[in-house]
Write a structure and sequence with these properties.
With 219 residues, the chain is mainly alpha-helical. It is built from 10 helices and 4 strands; from the N terminus they run H-H-E-H-H-E-H-H-H-E-E-H-H-H. The chain has a two-stranded antiparallel sheet with strand order 1-2. A two-stranded antiparallel sheet has the order 3-4. Strand 3 and strand 4 form a beta hairpin.
Amino acid sequence: MMIRLVISALLMMLAGNVFAASGGDENLDSVHVNLRDTESLQKGAATFTNYCLSCHGIKYMRYNRMADDLGINEEVLRSNFLQPSQKPGDQMTVNMSEDDAKRWFGVVPPDLSLIARARSPDWIYTFLRSFRVEEKSVTGWNNDLYPDVGMPHVLYSIQQDTTREEYDKTVRDLTNFLVYVAEPAKLVRYNIGIWVLIFMGIFIICAYFLKKEYWKDVH
């Protein structure tokens, strides 16, 4: 058992070093994530679907599960999120083939289902705000947090047409959505947690008065 614990610890340290090598965690900008902010999650979902999903899938999420969790009705789901050939029960994957991805970007864009857990919300937020023009690169862009990244600045049109504060809010909403995608059950736990606290409160009150009743004759 001890050997397994040591091996697990070493693997976690190695994974952390790999992530650090491909984009450091120093001097990250702080972002406030709130999974109770349904409006933010809905906007983040729309941004991801319109700007990210063409290259990056979130294969562990289905459209109808997302819609149920985020309060998106079926009409809006079909008109704003689904392609005509797609169904609400489909997984949120990309249509681009791996061969095309390698030819266009040199590498297959990663699935982002667990990116918020592999990295951190602050890392995602900082990364999306750190793109800069670099004409000599293949994409015409580079990233200060993740140098020589093969990804173009897909949110450039939003950044160009909005103020800095508005763009930061868009990135925050997108980050919020990716945090939700990484662990959708957290929303369920939040709802269950409220009822657990209510139950515990009632139980404590009942236990208190029961104790008084049992011990009132004990001197």
